[in-house]
Design a protein that fits this description.
Region (Disordered): 138-223, 243-300
Signal peptide: 1-38
Structural class: mainly alpha
Radius of gyration: 67 Å
Shape: elongated
Largest sheet: 2 strands, antiparallel
Number of helices: 8
Biased composition (Basic and acidic residues): 138-176, 184-196
Number of strands: 4
Strand order of the largest sheet: 1-2
Keywords: Signal
């Protein structure tokens, strides 16, 4: 049998006997495999120690005990460590979605459509109007006071004029009827005082009374000056009152304009709120449509995944039914049994032929 094998396969021993380089390479691969296995064993031991809460000091202490380092042995590293394994199934850190953050964010557009300015202007004009009303009330009271003073001055002026007229009439009567007291009158006029008898002494039986005409004239002139001053002050008060009334009209007009501006701003705000509500309604409708489309997409995606799973199962069954010369991707290759230099059937036939020949040749 050995002879037949040697005759059929003369280089079989050379093929089966690996060269020296192959033996060295095989030894190196075995050493690397043992090293990798030892490293995995060490890592598993380190991970188990870390999970148990005890992590050995790496590298090891040499020497273990040192009399100068706290006079103790510290082979363990008990410092807190970060977790070696994390299992995050969500974004870190936890944040809101972008669309929810935008909706929840307090917007500061630095614009109130002029409402604040209109309110400030309205308050200013209202305060100014109240102040003008107080000034108008004071001016009206002052006007009434001046009118009362004017009436009193007019009454005094009338009284003075009546007295002056009466004095003149009495003076003329005294000159006509003055049988007595003429020398006294001339003496008084020379002395700087003009005196007139109130009533003559002749024919009427009443005593004559001397009156100071110059003093009465000065008093009348003084009263007239007071009246003129009252008239001037009354005119000034009236002019001031008219100015205050004009200013009050302007304030009312400005207040009306401010109110109109505020109403216009309210209308603009209402229109803007209406537009925002319509936009929000459109957005919600689009969101509902998006959710419906997303649900339909997920349904179709599930059906597609189901079909893909069924297809993979059918493909696996098909691969099992195919020959060994076809790989999983559908490629057709020669099998390992047919890759030798001689077909298996021919080699077996040769072996049997050699055996039969040997048996027949043996006496």
């Amino acid at each position: 049998m050995a002879q037949v094998q040697a005759a059929l396969f003369p280089r079989a021993n050379e093929v089966m006997a690996p060269p020296r380089a192959c033996r060295h390479l095989l030894a190196l691969l075995l050493a690397l495999a043992e090293t990798a296995e030892a490293r995995r064993h060490i890592e598993r031991g380190t991970l188990a120690a870390a999970r148990a809460g005890e992590l050995r000091t790496v590298p090891k202490l040499s020497p273990k005990s040192d009399s100068l380092f706290f006079r103790h042995d510290f082979p363990d590293d008990l410092s807190p460590t970060a977790p070696l394994e994390t299992d995050f199934d969500h974004p870190y850190p936890v944040v809101q979605e972008s669309d929810k953050f935008d909706r929840d964010f307090v917007k500061d557009e630095n614009s109130d459509r002029g409402e604040w300015q209109a309110q400030v202007e309205y308050d200013r004009l209202r305060t100014q109007m109240r102040e003008l009303a107080r000034q108008e009330e004071k001016a009206r009271e002052r006007k009434e006071e001046l009118e009362r003073e004017l009436e009193a001055a007019s009454a005094r002026e009338k009284e003075v004029r009546d007295r002056r007229k009466q004095l003149r009439e009495h003076g003329e009567d005294g000159v006509k009827d003055g049988a007595t007291g003429g020398s006294e009158t001339e003496h008084e006029m020379k002395g700087g005082k003009e005196t007139k008898p109130v009533q003559g002494s002749s024919g009427k039986g009443s005593p004559g009374v001397a009156v100071d005409v110059s003093g009465a004239t000065k008093e009348v002139e003084k009263e007239l000056k007071d009246i003129e001053e009252c008239k001037r002050r009354l005119a000034e008060a009236h002019a001031k009152l008219q100015a205050l009334r004009e200013e009050q009209k302007e304030v009312k007009e400005e207040e009306r304009k401010a109110a109109d501006s505020e109403r216009a701003a309210e209308k603009v705000e209402a229109a803007s709120e209406k537009e925002e509500a319509e936009a929000e309604g459109r957005r919600r409708g689009a969101q509902v449509e998006h959710e419906d489309a997303l649900g339909a997409y997920r349904t179709e995606r599930g059906e597609l995944e189901d079909l893909e799973g069924r297809l993979e199962k059918a493909q696996a069954r098909l691969l099992k039914l195919r020959s060994a010369g076809v790989d999983r991707n559908g490629g057709v290759y020669k099998s390992e049994a047919r890759r030798g230099g001689v077909p298996a059937g021919i080699a077996l036939l040769c072996v049997w032929s050699a055996v039969v020949a040997t048996v027949l040749a043996d006496p």
